[in-house]
Write a structure and sequence with these properties.
single chain, 2 domains, 3-stranded mixed beta sheet, 3 strands
């Protein structure tokens, strides 16, 4: 068979259609498409349609095995085991991130009862430590997950997490709360957060945003239920037993979660059967789309959590009772519950980076609008809308990282590095917000401006990373 056979003598400017590996008997059956040139050619990287030698047969088998390996490594994108991992993630996030979203209830209680002599800015460091150790823990948990999988991390993580709640229940001093509810709580949370979200990315591809949205919506449902339950228990049985009952509920949630959350089993051809590549932090950070996205998420999370801490205080300053103001967190998380599922669905169809930018921009606009909001109805509406737009910011970040990471063996590492970068924003954002309130003699103007500006700036950095990864206006 000749190397090239032209079926129509056309000008060099005509389009060329390639038909590899066709025999001469097949050429007579090919239609000529007007001015289009039809070419039959052999590609050196592929064997002939009919192998002519033992060497070509071996090469044909080798290529087939490589194709099978690629197929084996693709996430199943569904199935019973995959969705059980999502259910396990939902339970874990209800118990962990849902309770973290409720710290505003504890902050309000501490300011009025347990630590009345301390300012809100000082008390906010307890919640900020939760976020800091949750985020920076990814630097350690990510590589451990890549090497050992999920279960060796989520079981001890659940133990640490529940013990932190029990130690909090017997704490009466500020430093005790810092250690138990701040440091220990954050570490236990990290040991559950990263294995869960990384496992889900292994089981899903085209439906990844939806799967992550469903799992992370557990934190939103927890954010609805925990404030109502904790406020009721605080009013009726006091701080100690209210916190202990919270811990017992977490035991009931995390026990099945530890069984359901699992890494995807490796196959003989899968890249997951190979050891993770040697860590190259400098090389990872030289990837500009990844670095800009991480910087964008730093600014986004620097400002995002401030309303979770101070919205109840804002409500009380505008005429709401303590219990009604604490219910604002339930309204916020109710909006987030719907958004995390819907945003994941939208992200899978219109682009994960596009959805992330839309969520960040929406949060920034709402915060700028908070300047003129003083009525109770408007504050409740703000809480719901802010929950809707902030809901996708946590669930989509891992989906975005997975989208720009061809080697899925290092997804855990890259998520961990990004979250470590974000940890310093989570550590300082809420105390800065509290300090601005104090500096404004109880006014919220400085806090609102700070959170709105940095959150919006983070959204535009995410947009810049998106156009570096995919310059054309399309789904990404």
């Amino acid at each position: 068979m000749p190397e090239k056979a032209y079926l129509s003598p056309l000008s060099a400017s005509s389009e060329e259609t390639l038909y590899p590996h066709l025999s001469f008997q097949e050429l007579s059956d090919i239609d000529l498409f007007g001015s289009q040139r039809t070419i039959v050619t052999d590609f050196p990287d592929f064997p002939p349609f009919y192998p002519q030698s033992e060497e070509s047969l071996i090469r044909h088998d080798s290529i087939s095995e490589e194709k099978d390996a690629v197929a084996d490594d693709r996430p199943p994108d569904g199935g019973l085991r995959a969705w059980l991992v999502v259910i396990g993630g939902f339970l874990a996030y209800f118990a962990t991130f849902g309770l973290l979203n409720t710290f505003g209830t504890f902050q309000s209680y501490y300011q009025r009862n347990l630590l009345p002599d301390m300012s809100g800015s000082v008390i906010a460091w307890i919640g900020s430590l939760q976020i800091f150790f949750l985020f920076i823990g990814g630097m350690v948990i990510g590589p451990l997950y890549d090497s050992y999988g999920a279960r060796p991390l989520v079981i001890p993580g659940s133990l640490v997490y529940v013990l932190s709640i029990m130690f909090t229940s017997i704490s009466t001093k500020y430093y005790q709360l810092m250690l138990a509810q701040g440091v220990m709580f954050g570490i236990g949370n990290a040991m559950l957060f990263y294995p869960t979200i990384s496992s889900i990315t292994q089981w899903f591809d085209s439906c990844r945003g939806l799967a992550l949205g469903i799992a992370v919506s557990g934190s939103s449902l927890g954010g609805i239920c925990w404030p109502l339950l904790i406020q009721y228990l605080l009013d009726h049985i006091g701080f100690g037993w209210a916190t202990r009952i919270t811990g017992f509920i977490c035991v009931g949630l995390l026990t099945p979660a530890c069984w359901l959350i699992a890494s995807r089993p490796v196959t003989s051809h899968s890249q997951h059967s190979e050891p993770p590549p040697k860590l190259d932090f400098i090389g990872i950070l030289k990837d500009w789309k990844y670095t800009l996205f991480s910087a964008g998420m730093f600014f986004v999370l620097w400002g995002m959590f401030i309303p979770f801490f101070y919205l109840p205080t804002y409500g009380q300053a505008h005429g709401m009772s303590e219990s009604a103001a604490n219910n604002l967190l339930a309204y916020l998380n109710a909006g987030s519950l719907v958004a995390r599922v819907v945003t994941g669905f939208i992200a899978d169809r219109f682009g994960r980076f596009n959805a992330m930018f839309g969520c960040a921009l929406g949060c920034g606009i709402l915060l700028f609008g908070l300047y003129g909001i003083t009525s109770i109805a408007a504050i409740i509406a703000f809480a719901v809308l802010y929950g809707i737009f902030s809901g996708g910011l946590i669930s989509l970040q891992s989906a975005c990282i997975a989208q720009i990471t061809p080697d899925h063996r290092i997804i855990g590492v890259k998520i961990g590095i990004m979250m470590a970068i974000c940890s310093f924003g989570g550590l300082t954002g809420s105390p800065i917000g509290g300090a601005l309130i104090t500096a404004n003699h109880g006014g919220f103007t400085g806090m609102i401006a700070f959170s709105a500006v940095i959150l919006t700036a983070g959204g535009f950095l995410v947009l810049l990373a998106r156009f570096i990864a995919a310059p054309k206006l399309r789904v990404f």
